[in-house]
Amino acid sequence: MDKNGQFLSHLLTKSQEMGRPCGLSYDVHTHRLWVGSYNNKVCVYRYITRQDALTDQSRVMESLSGLPTPGAEKSQQENQCLLIQMSQPELLHSLTVTCVGCCYHISCVTSDRVWVSKRNNLILTDTTGVPVHRVDDSCNCLYRYGLQTVNSESELIYIDKNYNINKLSMDMKTTTKFIERTDSTWEPRCVYWSPSTGDLLVGTSYIHIWTFKITRYNQSGELTQTIQHDNTGRELYKQPHYITENNNGDIVVSDYWSNAVVVTDRKGSHRFSYTRPPSGSGLEPHGICTDALSHILVCDGITNTVQMLDKDGQFLSHLLTKSQEMGIPCSLSYDVHTHHLWVGSYNNKVCVYRYITGHDALTDEHRPRPDMDTFSSSTPVV
Fold this sequence. Notes:
1 helix; 2% helix; mainly beta; 382 residues
């Protein structure tokens, strides 16, 4: 039955394997059900499998221990919590990145390190703002803002000056060519590593005319998907600057010249394009990311805000507005480990905000009560 006492189904019935069920135990780590019988049999069943659990309209997500985030499997398995959006974002700290004029793109590596793109190189900095490492062979052409991303191994993946896509090891000692540019008529513009699949999403442009497409590469660097047109044959993109992916597999693109956030599903079918908030002010999209609650967050150059949309493109709020601490937001990175939002500005400031908090999932009606067996109906107890 559901949490309100409504009957849903007979999940299991008497069988030769199980016999008559008597005792139950649920494994929160594997999401398997152990069933003891009136004989000496114990059976183990799986009836929950991994699916997109981020569809609750109340914007509350059960972060189940069996749905690990890459790189955070242990902590996810040890905790079962509810993630809830806070009423107001909280500024945790800010840093001023030296030798940077504008934070065109950022990718957080750990809770205290972040890669920052400036016009002609990439800077790894800690929370003091002091550069820890520098990559000098990144692409420095105009309109290529989402040049880098970080995978679950904390490796930097970036577009170099020759439009190859390279991978820098976590210890920053080894650079390897992950995807070599073999077609001189197409240039990569932005990249995003998918935590859910391990794939690399790449926004590319055709050099002779303004034609763009999104390509997907697997972990071996093999091309597996190309997205370019909608179901009527029209071009989906005009100039992708940033790209990300939502929890349901949607591919989310910040398309500067379309003045839109363009979203397709996992198969590449166009779902929607978001073009303006309810105020009708239009949209000048820049940095973009998604969070654990399947929100889409995008920096808007018209309102100088970070706008929050739901997964279906409905405007929810201006999550952040221009401030003395943050300045004008330009780039975003969501930390899946801490659920903190990193915001890079059009100056050399990076701010870290908390707007999602966690609670013990086994509270209130979810926590087993010692006298539960004394209640025989779903009638509220006064």
